[in-house]
Amino acid sequence: MSTTKARARDKTGTVLINHWQCGVPVNQGEIFTPFMLFLLGLAGLGMGLAAVRFFSPLGPFSAMNDVYAWGVWKTFNVMTLTALGSGPLALGMAAWVFNRQKLHAVMRTALVSGFLFYATGLIALGLDVGRPWNFYSAAMPWRWNYESAMLEIAICMPLYCALFLTFEILPLILERTYYTGGEKTRAWLRRVAPVIRKAYPFVIIGAYVIPLMHQSSLGGLLLLAGTKIHPLWQSPAMPLLYLIAACLCGFAFTIFLLLIVCLRYARPLSSEILAELANLLSGICFAFLAVRLADLLWRRQFSAVFALDRMSWLFLGETTLIFVPAFILRFKRARETPRTLLNMSALACLGGMSYRFIPTTIAYRPAHSTGYFPSVPELAIGAGYVALGVAAFGLAIHYFAILPGEASSWDHSFRPFGWQNKAFGAPATGPAVPKAALQGGA
Amino acid sequence: MSIALSRRKAFRAMTGLGGGLAAVVLPETVQASPEEHPAHPVAPPQAVAMLYDSTICTGCKACMPACNAANGLAPDTHLSGGIWDMPTSLNAQTKNIIELYQDTQSDEFAFVKKQCMHCLDPACVTGCPFGALNKNILGAVTWNASLCIGCRYCEVACPFEVPQFQWESWNPKIVKCEFCYDQRLKENLEPACTAACPTGAVVFGKRADLLIQAKDRIAAAPDKYFEQRVYGEHEAGGTQVLYLSSVSFQKLGLPKLAPTSLGHYATKVTSVIYKWLSGPLLMAGVLGFFIRRNWERHESERIGHERKTGFPDQL
User: Fold this and answer.
1) Inter-chain touch A431–B310, beta carbons under 8 Å
2) Which of A70, A175, A206 sits opposite B152 (nearest CB)?
3) Which of A207, A235, A215 is nearest to A97 (CA)?
4) Whole-model pTM?
5) Per-residue pLDDT tens digits for A122-180
6) Structural domain of B191
7) In this structure, are B28 and B84 located in the same domain?
8) Subunit contact A129:B149, Cβ cutoff 8 A
9) Yes or no, beta carbons of B311 and A431 under 8 Å apart
10) Does B262 lie in the same domain as B204?
11) B310 is a domain residue
12) CB–CB of B150 and A130 under 8 A?
């Protein structure tokens, strides 16, 4: 691992190396590995089944029933996985609002993964609703029921994904177009780039306010379920906790993803940025636990924690999954050890996901004695959405400058997938364009 | 760095901004307008109701085919081998059902009629995103096919687990008792089930009148009635179907619920935050202030960095 070497050199103060300077496409390694083919196959199967579901009632496809009216598509693909996709919110707020400048280098990883989680979640939602043809009401504000958390989600989530996340990932697409495009495209992009830079600080305000709204509304949804949800989870603090859990998962998953993919492509790591992220993760884990504890004490439900029944064990497990990384990542050494960081971020992801998932399904216990376990096609479609997102990410990093790396390691003339380099005049390596050319988002 | 902004100044600007927005927004919330979701809603005088007395019901189920006929529902013959109507609970073709509770140890038993409770502050109506579920002037909770997107939030929200979704249908509908509003109530007829009841176990009337009638029955024979109270008077903020029973309401499958309406519980904080979008706008103002500041810092650093390294900065 070159981190240790880099740190050693950094300490002497002679060579300051930050290995993560900007996004750099992956230009090595097999793309269509057996794992990628498996993912594509799974995604194909899932999408095929989803296409059939589009022309079929929900009944034969899912094990959902009138007691558990929300199956895994809503409770896992949307309510749980968009928490993992909250990296753009968590990192973006840290970088732009709380001025953690270091995090800009890894923002694109968070943005693209977040976009894919949201996009697949929205496909899941679209195929889960029973009467999608009536969704046009979303464009008619006089039909809106303003007090419904479901309305907030139905409007804000597609809006966020289609408008704000797309705008945020636009620069990395335009940038790639710049390097691959001809002279005309480049001239156009030179004109567009300053416009994007002008709009950027205003658009990202919406890009943070809107997920703050809908991530808390996901918790707000469950308030109406009332006593159907076990008192360890049912709480007026649920909207706040869902929001904190989203930020928690956003940080944790970004760390996890960065480590996994950088290890896979043998990229040097930046211990500085990772330590910063780990520090934030630990802080937000403690914030989550503090709110959770205060909420339980305030509602006088603390005794239920140690009832040692099934729900209390679930609660203890979930809390442990969040407490362990919170505590371990307080130590500087743990924050700078990639292996520990990988394990701890995985635990935090699991903890945050448990909190988001449990109240919707396991701790959701209406009086009727009906069970719910997703059916095989239901699971296949759900897994298909995830596989689609992962495969898209795996392909995207080969083409777009998403993963962080050293700016000098970017070979602009390289084309993945065996494509021919048609752009003329692109230098082989190094700073590809005159510095004035790319003042903008491209 | 070009921005000479001290923490104190920033704080002052923020309080100014926050205070300004609050001044615009607060009078709206402070005004003593009638609350959208009071904790304990009061039924309007015209509110209709059903009173079901489990001690009178003989379980003849006359109300069930009457309900099916009025609502154009096919009998559920799944369990009876295609012979007679035999639903096991409310389902996609049953809006009204008589269930039997029987104690396994003693000879205690009771019938119970299940249908929509037509809550005074229905959770399903609060949750429905495009207002497909609506509580009309008489208090009947009705469903509008042209507004429903099929999200099934009503099923999650309903504490009585009443709304049913047609899982097997291409054009799935939410099936629930609508108080026969379109079919009969509009034409000044009472609902099909109360009209069909031969024993008077379920009667139709104004909610206020039926509540008095129920309390009179309890006063006349206090030992006969469980806890000497009317189920539905206060449950979940009060319902427009009232129950009297000799056995515990929970044994009949009626959930134990707090007297606060679920709509009040779910919206008491958000209704303040989202009033005229004041919370999100305030948040946008505060975030915008910091983003603007950090953006300018970032820009000055970026230009210096690009000049130094020759690498274009990425957004």
Assistant:
1) yes
2) A70
3) A207
4) 0.89
5) 999 999 999 999 999 999 999 999 999 999 999 999 999 999 999 999 999 998 888 88
6) 48-266
7) no
8) yes
9) yes
10) yes
11) no
12) yes
